[in-house]
Amino acid sequence: MDILIRSTPAEVAIAAADIFVRYANAGATLGLATGSTPVAMYQELTARYERQEVSFARSRAFLLDEYVGLARSHEQSYYSTIRRVFTSHVDFIDELVQSPEGDAADSDRAAAAYDQAIRHAGGIDIQLLGIGGNGHIGFNEPSSSLQSRTRLETLHPRTVQDNARFFENTDSVPRYALTQGLGTISEARHLLLLATGTEKSSAVRDMVEGPLSAHCPASVLQLHPRATVILDEDAASQLEDYEYYRFVDEHRPH
Ligand code: F6R
C-alpha cells in the first residue's frame, strides 16, 4: 500500500487529482465514488478542466454503488449526485457515466448486469474509494465476503446514521443499496482511497494495520498489488507506523 499523508483535506484533493488526471487524459475507465470526501477532488478536477489541463471526453465511468428504492431523478440518488457534483461540470459523455440500477424490479439481475457491464468495458483502470467510519468501502458493510460481487446489501445502522445528513431525517435514508462487491472492486487495476477527519482514523488504522478481516471490509486493500491511500493528518492520527509512512513518502526512490 502506498500511504500519502497530507496536512489538510485540500492537499489530499490535490494529490488525488494529480493521479486521476493522468488516467483521464489517457481515456481510462474511471471508477467514481460519492459521499463527502471526494467532493474537493471533483472540484479540483473541474478547475483543471476549465484550465484545459484535463479532459474526460475519452473516458467512461462506473459508480461504486446506488441506493435501492430511490428513483434516479431523486436528488440523493447517486446517479443524480455524481452528475450534480462532478460529471455535468466537465466533458464526460453522460451516457458513459453508469451506476447500478437501484430502482430495478429485480435487484439480483441488475447487480449481475452491472458486474457484466464493467467486464465488457474491459474493467476499471482506477477506482476511487472513500471509507466508512465502520470500515466499509462501497456499501460493503462488516461481514462482507472479501470476494463478493455486485449485490444487494443491507446498510449498517452506523451507515444509515452517517448518511442521514443528506436526508430529511434518519427514517428517510434507504436501508438497502446495490454495491460493487469487494471482489469486483479488487479487480480494478489501481485503487485510490481518500480519507479525511478524525472520525475515520480508527477505520483507517484497521484498514492499514489491522488484520485482513471481513469485519473491516477496507482491509481487502492489503491484498491489492496497487493501492494508494491518501490521508490528512487527522485520518492518519491513529496509525502506529505514522512516522515510517511519512519517511517512505518523502524519500521515494526515483
Ligand atoms: C460512496 C461510498 C461510501 C463512502 C463512504 C464515506 O459511494 O461508496 O463507501 O465512500 O461512506 O463517505 P463520506 O465520504 O461521505 O465520509
Automatic annotation (TrEMBL):
Q: Which EC class does it fall in?
A: hydrolase
* Pathway listed: Amino-sugar metabolism; N-acetylneuraminate degradation; D-fructose 6-phosphate from N-acetylneuraminate: step 5/5
Q: Which reaction does it catalyse?
A: alpha-D-glucosamine 6-phosphate + H2O = beta-D-fructose 6-phosphate + NH4(+)
Q: What is its EC number?
A: 3.5.99.6
- Under the GO molecular function aspect, what terms does this record hold? glucosamine-6-phosphate deaminase activity; isomerase activity
Q: Residue ranges of the Glucosamine/galactosamine-6-phosphate isomerase domain?
A: 25-223
Asked whether the keyword Chloroplast is assigned, the reply is no
Q: What does this protein do?
A: Catalyzes the reversible isomerization-deamination of glucosamine 6-phosphate (GlcN6P) to form fructose 6-phosphate (Fru6P) and ammonium ion.
Q: What does the sequence similarity comment in the record state about its family?
A: Belongs to the glucosamine/galactosamine-6-phosphate isomerase family. NagB subfamily.
UniProt protein name: Glucosamine-6-phosphate deaminase
Q: What organism is this sequence from?
A: Corynebacterium segmentosum
